[in-house]
Design a protein that fits this description.
Layout (H helix, E strand, L loop, with lengths): L1 H22 L15 H9 L4 H7 L3 E2 L10 E2 L20 H5 L4 H24 L36 H16 L13 E4 L13 E2 L4 H8 L1 H8 L5 E4 L3 E2 L2 E2 L4 H11 L5 E4 L6 H4 L7 H11 L15 H6 L5 H18 L21 H14 L1 E5 L13 E4 L6 H5 L12 H6 L7 E4 L8 E5 L5 E2 L2 E2 L1 E6 L10 E5 L3 E4 L16 E8 L5 E17 L2 E8 L5 E7 L5 E8 L7 E11 L2 H7 L5 E7 L16 E2 L2 E2 L6 H12 L3 E7 L9 H4 L2 E4 L7 H9 L32 H4 L16 E3 L3 E2 L3 E2 L5 E9 L5 E11 L9 E10 L4 E8 L5 E4 L4 E4 L2 E8 L7 E8 L1
C-alpha cells in the first residue's frame, strides 16, 4: 500500500501541487514557511523568531499553539506498539514478544507500514472533523521498545522482541522503517522512537529511584546497547527515549555518557531525545540529584534531552528561570529546540496537506481486509508449540466432544495485551474453536480464575435505588459533577462500560471530559463478608456509608478485590464517583457478591464422557504490565515475584489430568512461565502469547491442523524461579540462553507437525580478515509428511572467551518446504558478527582468533551443529 500511495501522491499529483505553490504563494512568506528549504533551515529561521518562553513551551510533549507565528498545538506522545494505541476501530496485532516468535522481520515491516497508515488515517480523520492535535492522536509514536528482556518477571517484557540483542535489532529496524516511511521521501509518515535508553528492564516498582552501578562495559555494549545502535545507524530512527533509572549515579535523561558520548559522538545520532513521562521530575523527587525543577530542567537539556513528558507541571517550562540563574544558556536551548522543530517540519506539520502525501491516506485503510489478514498471518506465525506427546495435536474435526476450559478461553481483551487500541472485531479462542467444530461438540466452562482460587456469586440483583434494581447513575459533561446533569439512567446488571468503539456511557454523555455518580443501596439478609470486584480507567472512588474503600486515578482498568463485612438488616449506601480524564478511553467495571471456593468436583462431573480438554490459561494484561497499582499473590506492581503458573490454574490442570483427561494447555502470556509441572500434567502445550484481534482464529487453526506451527521462542523458559537472580541485578551472568544452559524450553525452540533435518554446513571461506564477511550454506530437508516452515538459526562464539556469551545469535532465516523437499539455506555473516567487546581497546571490535559457528533449529546444544572459522 505504501509503495502505491507514495507513487500516486509523492511522485504525481502532490509534486505538481508542490511546484505550483513554490512558484506562487511561498515567495511572499517567511523562510520557515517555505517547503523548498530543508527542515533544519526552516527550524533555524523559526527559532530566531521565538521568545525564550515560547521555546521552552515547544520542548514540552504537549506543546501549546503560538498563533502569532502560525504554530499549531502539537503532542509528541502517541503509541503504536502493535497497532495505533488508545484508539478505536484500529487493527490490533499480536504483542511484540509474540511477533518476535515469528522470526519474520519482512512480515513485521509490512505490519508496521500498515500501522503507520492507520495512524495517519486516524490523525487525518480527527483533524478533518475540526479537532486539534492531542495526546494519542498525533504523528509521533513512542515505539518500538527495544529493551532486552533479561528477566521473565518484568511485566513490560511483552512489549519487547525478547532477550537476544540481534533478534531485537533485526525486528526493531523493520518496525522503524515501517513507521517512518521510505528513507528518500520528503516527509516522514510518522516519527518512531527507540525506547527506553538504556539498560532498562524492570523492576517496575523501583524504576524511579533505581541506580545501576554494576553494569560492566562489556555487558553494556554487547547486550544492552546493540538494538539502540542498530535503530540509529540502520533505521535512522527520529526519536530516542531516555529511561527512568540512574546508570552509574546519573539519571538516564541527565546522563551525558549515554546521551552525548555514546549516542551522538560514537553513533552519530542527530535527532531528538525525549524523556520518559515524569523522568525529569524524578531528578528532584526520587533520585535527589537536583534540588528543584529549575535545576532538573537545565541538567536534562545540557545532557541532551530535548522534549520533556510529564502529566502536569513541566520542569522544562522553568528553563527561562534556569537561563536567568546562569544554569544554562539560551543557545543550549536552541540546540535542543532545533532537533525538535526539525522533526515537526519533517512530518509536514507546518505545510499544507495538499503537498504532504501521507495527509491523503483515507479512513478506509482502518482495519481493512489487508490489515486484518496481516494480523491473522502474524498471529499464526507467532504460535509456538512447546510440547506434543504422542502427537495429540492436531485435533480431529470429526472426532468426539472436546471441552474448552480456562479463564482465558473466552476473554477477548486478554488477546490485545497492553498498549493497545480497540479493534473492530476480536475472535476469542473459544470463538475460533467454534469455527472448526459445531457447538454441540464443545463443552465450555471457565473452570477457574486467572489468580484467585474463588468464584464470585453476584449479589448485583439485590442492589436497588429509588425502588428500582441496580444503580442509579447520573452523568455530567464535565469532570467535577457540577451544574446540571445531562443524563440519568438505571443499571441493573454488573457494570461493564467503555467508550472504546465510540460508545457513550449514556445518551448525551460526551466520550471525553465527563463524570458520573453511581448510587445504590443494599440491605443484607445475613451477616457475612462480601467483595466488590472491579476497577476503572480514569478517576475512580468507591464509597460505602461515607467511607472511602478505594480511590485512585489510573490510565487503565486494573481489576481489584475489596472485601467488606456486612450486618444483617443494616442498609448500606454504595457510591461510585467517576470521571474521565487525561485522554484515556473511559472504562468502568463492577460486580458485588459472595466468594465461594472453587469446586473442581463439579467441573469434572460436567466433563463426564469428554476425553480431550483444551485449557486456555496463563496470564493477562491485568496481571503483567507497566507500574500497576493493583497487586495479586505472586505479582507486584505489574511484575511477578515468581514465574510459576498461578496455583489455581495449576490445581485445575492437575484435577483434569487426575480425572484421566488428555489436556492441551494453551498458554497466553507476555513472558516465560515455569511450566515444569505442566509438562507432566499436560499432553500438549501451545504458547499463544497475546495474539491480537485474530488470535483466537490462529490458535484454532493450529490446534486443528489448518496451520502448521513454526514459532520459535524469543525468550528462555526457565524451569523454576530458583534459577533467577536478584531482579535488580543487571549482570547477565546466569541469565538468558547466552549465559545459561539449563532451560526447560530454550531460546529458539519450537515444534512443528513435520520433521526437519539439518545437514552439514559449508563456508565460502574458513579464514578471513577482520573486515570480511562469510557465507554459511546449510542443507535443510523436510523429512516429515506435511508442508512446514523451519527457522534456521546461526550462532557465534569466540573460542577461549571465558567471560563472554556461550553463544549469541548472528543470523536466521525462515524456510518453507513441502514434505520430502530439500534446499540449501545461505545465511550471510557480516564482519560485525565476530565483533565482541575488547577490554584492551575498551570498545567493540573484531579481534584475531578462532570462532565457532553453531547452526540448527534452536539454541540448545543438542539442536546445533558446529564449524569454525579463523580471523587473521
Amino acid at each position: 500500500m505504501e509503495t502505491a500511495m507514495f507513487k500516486t501522491f509523492g511522485k504525481g499529483i502532490c509534486v505538481s501541487a508542490f511546484l505550483l505553490l513554490s512558484a506562487t504563494s511561498w515567495g511572499q512568506q517567511l523562510p520557515y514557511q517555505n517547503p523548498n528549504l530543508s527542515s533544519e533551515a526552516r527550524a533555524k529561521d523559526l527559532i530566531s523568531r521565538l521568545t525564550l518562553t515560547e521555546k521552552a513551551t515547544l520542548m514540552c510533549d504537549q506543546s501549546d499553539a503560538i498563533p502569532r507565528l502560525g504554530i499549531k498545538k502539537f503532542n509528541w506522545w502517541s503509541e503504536a506498539l502493535h497497532g495505533y494505541a488508545n484508539n478505536d476501530s484500529v487493527t490490533v496485532f499480536p504483542e511484540p514478544v509474540g511477533m518476535a516468535a515469528s522470526f519474520d522481520d519482512k512480515l513485521l515491516y509490512r505490519i508496521y507500514n500498515a500501522i503507520s497508515d492507520e495512524g495517519r488515517a486516524k490523525y487525518n480523520l480527527w483533524l478533518q472533523r475540526g479537532n486539534e492535535n492531542k495526546r494519542f492522536l498525533s504523528l509521533s509514536v513512542w515505539t518500538p521498545n527495544v529493551n532486552i528482556f533479561r528477566d521473565p518477571r518484568w511485566g513490560r517484557g511483552q512489549e519487547t522482541y525478547g532477550e537476544d540483542p540481534y533478534l531485537t535489532s533485526r525486528m526493531g529496524v523493520q518496525v522503524v522503517k515501517g513507521l517512518q516511511g521510505p528513507a528518500d521521501a520528503k516527509y516522514r509518515k510518522l516519527l518512531a522512537c527507540a525506547k527506553h535508553y538504556a539498560v532498562h528492564s524492570g523492576p517496575e516498582w523501583s524504576r524511579h529511584e533505581l541506580n545501576l552501578n554494576n553494569v560492566n562495559p562489556r555487558e553494556l555494549y554487547e547486550t544492552y546497547l546493540p538494538a539502540f545502535k542498530a535503530l540509529v545507524q540502520d533505521a535512522d530512527v527520529c526519536q530516542v527515549m531516555c529511561a527512568y533509572q540512574r546508570l552509574d549515579d546519573e539519571p538516564c535523561c541527565g546522563n551525558t555518557r549515554l546521551l552525548q558520548r555514546i549516542l551522538r559522538d560514537e553513533w552519530g545520532y542527530k535527532y531528538m531525545v525525549v524523556s520518559d513521562c515524569g523522568a525529569v521530575t524524578d531528578f528532584f523527587t526520587s533520585h535527589k540529584v537536583s534540588s528543584d525543577a529549575v535545576h532538573a530542567a537545565s541538567k536534562a537539556v545540557l545532557a541532551g534531552t530535548d522534549v520533556e513528558c510529564v502529566w502536569e507541571n513541566y520542569p522544562f517550562k522553568d528553563l527561562p528561570a534556569a537561563v536567568d540563574k546562569g544554569l544554562i544558556k539560551e543557545n543550549d536551548i536552541n540546540k535542543s529546540l532545533l532537533r525538535v522543530l526539525t522533526g515537526r517540519f519533517d512530518l509536514g506539520d507546518f505545510d499544507d496537506n495538499s503537498i504532504v502525501p501521507w495527509a491523503q491516506i483515507p479512513a478506509s485503510v482502518l482495519n481493512n481486509q489487508e490489515h486484518r489478514q496481516l494480523a491473522l498471518d502474524m498471529a499464526r506465525e507467532a504460535m509456538t508449540l512447546l510440547q506434543n506427546k504422542k502427537n495429540l495435536l492436531p485435533l480431529s474435526k470429526t472426532g468426539k466432544q472436546i471441552a474448552v476450559i480456562g479463564p482465558n478461553a473466552n476473554d477477548k481483551p486478554m488477546l490485545w495485551g497492553n498498549y493497545n487500541g480497540t479493534p473492530v472485531h476480536t475472535i476469542s479462542i473459544l470463538d475460533g474453536i467454534k469455527t472448526k467444530i459445531s457447538d454441540k461438540k464443545i463443552v465450555y466452562d471457565k473452570g477457574c480464575d486467572l489468580v484467585e482460587d474463588k468464584v464470585t456469586q453476584s449479589y448485583f440483583d439485590q442492589l436497588s435505588s429509588a425502588n428500582k434494581k441496580g444503580f442509579k447513575v447520573t452523568y455530567w459533561n464535565n469532570t467535577d459533577r457540577s451544574g446540571d446533569p445531562v443524563a440519568t439512567v438505571q443499571i441493573s446488571n454488573p457494570i461493564k462500560m467503555t467508550t472504546a468503539g465510540q460508545h457513550e456511557f449514556a445518551s448525551g454523555v460526551k466520550l471525553e471530559g465527563f463524570s458520573g455518580l453511581f448510587e445504590a443501596e443494599f440491605t443484607p439478609k445475613v451477616s457475612e463478608e462480601l467483595v466488590f470486584k472491579g476497577g476503572a480507567t480514569g478517576d475512580y472512588e468507591l464509597i460505602v456509608n461515607g467511607q472511602s474503600l478505594q480511590k485512585y486515578s489510573n490510565w487503565r482498568t486494573l481489576p481489584s478485590r475489596i472485601p467488606f463485612k456486612v450486618e444483617a438488616g443494616k442498609t448500606y449506601k454504595i457510591e461510585i464517583r467517576y470521571a474521565q480524564k487525561n485522554n484515556w478511553q473511559a472504562n468502568i467495571e463492577l460486580d458485588f457478591g459472595k466468594e465461594l471456593n472453587v469446586d473442581y468436583t463439579k467441573l469434572i462431573d460436567k466433563l463426564k464422557g469428554v476425553e480431550t480438554v483444551v485449557f486456555v490459561g496463563g496470564l493477562s494484561g491485568s496481571l503483567e504490565g507497566e507500574e500497576m497499582p493493583v497487586s495479586y499473590p505472586g505479582f507486584k506492581g505489574g511484575d511477578r515475584t515468581n514465574i510459576d503458573l498461578p496455583a489455581v490454574q495449576r490445581n485445575c490442570l492437575k484435577a483434569l489430568k487426575d480425572a484421566g483427561k488428555k489436556v492441551i494447555f494453551v498458554n497466553c502470556s507476555g513472558s516465560a512461565i515455569a511450566l515444569t509441572p505442566e509438562t507432566e500434567s499436560c499432553d500438549a502445550i501451545l504458547q499463544a502469547w497475546y495474539p491480537g484481534e485474530s488470535g483466537g482464529q490462529a490458535v484454532a487453526d493450529v490446534l486443528f491442523g489448518d496451520y502448521n506451527p513454526s514459532g520459535k521462542l524469543p525468550i528462555t523458559f526457565y524451569k523454576s524461579s530458583d534459577q533467577l537472580k536478584d531482579f535488580e541485578d543487571y549482570s547477565m551472568k546466569g541469565r538468558t540462553y547466552r549465559y545459561m544452559t539449563d532451560a526447560l524450553f530454550p531460546f529458539g525452540y519450537g515444534l512443528s507437525y513435520t520433521k526437519f533435518a539439518i545437514g552439514n554446513a559449508t563456508l565460502d571461506k574458513n579464514t578471513l580478515s577482520a573486515n570480511e564477511d562469510v557465507k554459511v550454506t546449510i542443507p535443510v530437508s523436510n523429512t516429515g509428511k506435511r508442508q512446514g516452515t523451519e527457522i534456521v538459526q546461526v550462532y557465534v562464539r569466540k573460542v577461549n572467551d571465558v567471560e563472554g556469551p556461550l553463544k549469541t545469535l548472528k543470523g536466521f532465516q525462515r524456510v518453507s518446504l513441502n514434505a520430502g523437499q530439500k534446499t540449501n539455506v545461505t545465511i550471510d555473516l557480516p564482519a560485525s558478527s565476530f565483533e565482541f567487546y575488547d577490554w584492551s581497546q575498551r570498545k567493540m571490535m573484531v579481534t584475531p582468533g578462532e570462532y565457532e559457528i553453531f547452526y540448527g533449529n534452536s539454541s540448545d546444544a543438542k539442536d546445533l551443529k558446529k564449524t569454525t572459522v579463523v580471523v587473521r
